[in-house]
Amino acid sequence: METDLKIVLGKAFGELYEIQKKQGIKKVDEGHIFGLLNGFEEALNNEFEHLNFITEEEVNKVSHYFAPYVEAEEKTKELPPFTNMQSDLEKQGIGQARFITILRYLNATNRLNVDVNEAGDFTLTEEVR
User: Fold this and answer.
1) Contact predicate 88/127, CB 8 Å
2) Residues near 124 by Cβ (< 8 Å), separated by ≥ 6?
3) Cα distances (angstroms) measured from residue 114 to each of 18, 96, 128
4) Residue 127: which residues within 8 A CB-CB, separation 6 or more?
């Protein structure tokens, strides 16, 4: 990410965190907010180091994997074990963390009609930052 863009976004995030703090929502500490508002590299890097970019191709691979179950138009318990799903998608270049993130996205956009929560020890509705 370009430095100027990182600084501008950092200031915007700092302002959002200030507004949230005034509303009683404390997601980050005062030092982090100060760092974002004032362009401290450490605070900016901490804020943006976890940004993911997931391509349409990756989403399509996971969607395609689940297509037979989704097209069944009914909930099914015939999903393969999570380790099998993970292994199949790793062969296509999608690691476990990315796979779960994509599943959460598909679940949030109502593109899954299967309960994949039963397939592993993760929650699709978990709040993601």
Assistant:
1) no
2) 100, 103, 104, 107, 108, 116, 117
3) 39, 18, 21
4) none
Q: What is the pLDDT of residues 60-98, one digit of tens each?
A: 999 998 888 777 655 556 777 878 888 999 999 999 889
Instruction: Tell how far CA 120 is from the center of its chain.
Output: 17
Structure tokens at 125: 């509705």
Q: Where do runs of H (alpha helix) occur along the chain?
A: 3-22, 30-37, 41-48, 56-70, 82-90, 96-108
Q: What is the pTM of this model?
A: 0.62
